[in-house]
Design goal:
11 helices; single chain; alpha/beta; 287 residues
């Protein structure tokens, strides 16, 4: 019986496709596809019904669905479009099969339902797996990007780097800060690292502990940390909590910290106007 029904459905695919397209089109006004252009919507629906019949004709081979699902994912179509479409196909196909029979008892109807379900279920499983895999991959990439952006190490000059911190620092983020800090110091051959906490709203004992640990780790690999961006309220909190930050330099602003970093690397900020006057004096003395 399954093979007989398969031949009936395939040989009448034009009629079933027409009925399916009409139902899908009727639903459009009340669903999420109203913002999609008519041409794209029509083309996608036609491709969808074609790959469904291709899968049925190949007896469960859902390979044709892979490319179709990938295109839908890239275009941002929701999974509900797939599930709604397959549910509609199941209903339209069963209605068509029943219309070809003069009389159908309960047992016969149950067999027809199971056969159609066996056609549709592999397609649903394949598409859900495709979407799930894509979402998991996207979430993984986003999580990695957020981790990198949450604790970036920026080289601003030879041997000097800056790590601007923004937002709340929890244990997981502190681990990322430590990893990025150590990897960045080695990668950029940094002698001095400026940790800027201007954007950190609260510095409590835990946050200070993580910062001290990071600074100590940097010191162990031969570099030096300077903590900058300490606002008056943060300074008061640190004093009230009895947090000891005497092991590494602190500055109120990034500018002051950068000037200190230059001195640590045997450089200094020179006033160009004064420099030009000195050069002029030297040239005049040679005349």
């Amino acid at each position: 019986m399954p093979e007989v029904l398969r031949k009936i459905v395939i040989s009448n695919s034009d009629v079933i496709s027409k009925n399916w397209l009409e139902e899908i089109k009727a639903k459009r006004e009340s669903d999420y596809t109203t913002s999609i252009s008519d041409s794209l919507y029509h083309t996608t629906n036609q491709e969808f019904i074609n790959v469904i019949f291709s899968s049925i004709n190949r007896q469960g081979n859902t390979g044709a669905m892979d490319d179709f699902a990938e295109r839908l994912i890239n275009l941002g179509w929701p999974l509900s479009y797939i599930t709604d479409g397959l549910q509609t196909f199941r209903r339209v196909t069963i209605d068509f099969i029943l219309s070809q029979s003069e009389q159908v008892d309960t047992e016969e109807f149950s067999r027809i339902l199971n056969i159609v379900e066996n056609w549709v279920e592999p397609i649903i499983n394949q598409l859900v797996n495709q979407y799930s895999g894509s979402w998991e991959h996207t979430v993984s990439l986003q999580r990695l990007a957020l981790r990198e952006l949450s604790a970036p190490l920026i080289p601003v000059m030879d041997n000097i780097t800056v790590m601007p911190l923004v937002g709340t620092i929890d244990t997981e983020r502190a681990k990322s800060i430590m990893e990025n800090l150590l990897e960045g110091v080695m990668k950029h051959h940094a002698e001095v690292v400026l940790i800027d906490i201007t954007g950190v709203p609260v510095v409590d004992t835990m946050v200070a502990h993580h910062i001290i640990q990071a600074a100590e780790a940097v010191r162990l690999i031969g570099s030096k940390c300077i903590l900058v961006g300490i606002r008056p309220e943060i300074a008061q909190t640190i004093v009230n909590l009895g947090i000891d930050l005497t092991k590494f330099p602190t500055k109120s602003t990034l500018r002051k910290g950068f000037a200190t970093a230059l001195k640590e690397t045997n450089r200094e900020i020179v006033n160009l106007e004064d420099s030009n006057e000195d050069v002029t004096k030297i040239l005049n003395s040679l005349k």
